[in-house]
Design goal:
119 residues; Ribosomal Protein S5, domain 2; 4-stranded mixed beta sheet; 3 helices; globular
Length: 119
């Protein structure tokens, strides 16, 4: 699906990613941001200034070793790719995982519920 922002290798295109510290800070520390928190993660959302919905994923060191953190990011990206109908329109969203979580399906269910709250 190369025409829709996806690369042929399955990665998010740049138009679907938050790139750089400044983008993350706009969403996480912005005064007009919406924040929802669950057991395993929290989601911050702000209106996008231009373009489509863009995502950023941050996993704290408290969540585990580097291998574990990278695996969680890959799982979340795959979940977002497969559930594009859950995406709010024209938002910048940061998903932050800051606690250890061995239950991956529980984490994904929580992300789904929190995304529905933001919509």
């Amino acid at each position: 699906m190369t025409g829709f922002g996806w690369h042929s290798d399955g990665k998010f295109g740049k138009n679907y990613r938050l790139c750089g510290r400044s983008d993350f800070l706009k969403v996480c520390r912005g005064q007009e941001s919406i924040r929802v928190k669950g057991r395993y993660c929290r989601i911050s959302s702000a209106e996008a200034t231009i373009g489509d919905t863009r995502f950023g994923i941050a996993v704290s060191r408290k969540a585990g070793a580097a291998v574990t953190r990278n695996r969680k990011k890959r799982i979340i990206r795959e979940f977002l790719r497969n559930n594009k109908t859950l995406w709010p329109s024209a938002k910048m969203i940061v998903i932050t995982i800051d606690s250890p979580c061995d239950d991956e399906s529980g984490l994904l269910n929580e992300i789904e519920q929190l995304l529905r709250k933001i919509k």
